[in-house]
């Protein structure tokens, strides 16, 4: 009679944590979507403004920001929290990241930012010199973006109750008249564009955190994108159907969100992926997929095919997107899925990030 060691049998099966929050719930991938769907939204109630817009274009819960009509004016608002570790990294810090992240969330809905709010949660014992440096970064980044910080809050928590400092920002903007974008507006035949190289932010932060040495040659791409968006919308606003900044979860998660929201398939070409050689080398060494690595200074645009070349030209005329390229196309087949044509001529499924590849990345 054959017996099975119960210890061996239990070890062979992966254990899935279902009753506690894990780092993976903050990844921007599948677990984040499940947390939103199963925990956060049901608690708001069917009558809440946020739940009522679930799945709706123009401000639905899967957008980067919400669209509000106030006295005939179309406004856009967004809130984000930043817990990046380390606080300072090549190309930026938690202060610049907070400003750029919220400005870009507004921009992805076609809005010009009008004002920001900033809140700091500071751990007891945090160095005042570091606090001054971060606050100065927030001020400089906001001034450079042309967006005033109009109000905020500061809280101090006991030693050990936070990791140095956390920053929360909210923003409000006015939607450009020609903008009408939503993750639900992609159509078969549309072109998929990306404004620049991918993978630099996540690779830089991970290298700085673990002292891997790559950060000597790679810097975060964090930057504001609202001026780029304004130039694109003013040229061919009606032909821009979707805009997303591929932050947590990277390009893969952003494209999967678009495919699911629009009920379409997306096909991209591996030869078109704008991955810098140093980023590719670092990802190969660390076992990371550049498609899942966070970005903080590029956007994905899904546009009408007849406008793709003109929009690309506008993008390439701007300093923040001079390396813009076409990644692929929207298709009617395999709805809700993203497929990549590989260098070998085969195809592979590009799924959303599962778990947490790079925690504390933004």
From TrEMBL:
Biological processes per GO annotation: protein maturation
InterPro entries: HypE, PurM-like_C_dom, PurM-like_C_sf, PurM-like_N, PurM-like_N_sf
TM region(s), chain numbering: none
SUPFAM superfamilies given in the database record: PurM C-terminal domain-like, PurM N-terminal domain-like
Segments forming domain PurM-like N-terminal: 63-174
Residue ranges of domain PurM-like C-terminal in the record: 187-339
Stored Pfam families: AIRS, AIRS_C
Gene3D superfamilies documented for this protein: PurM-like C-terminal domain (3.90.650.10), PurM-like, N-terminal domain (3.30.1330.10)
Protein family according to the UniProt entry: Belongs to the HypE family.
UniProt name for this protein: Hydrogenase expression/formation protein HypE
Species name: Parafrankia soli
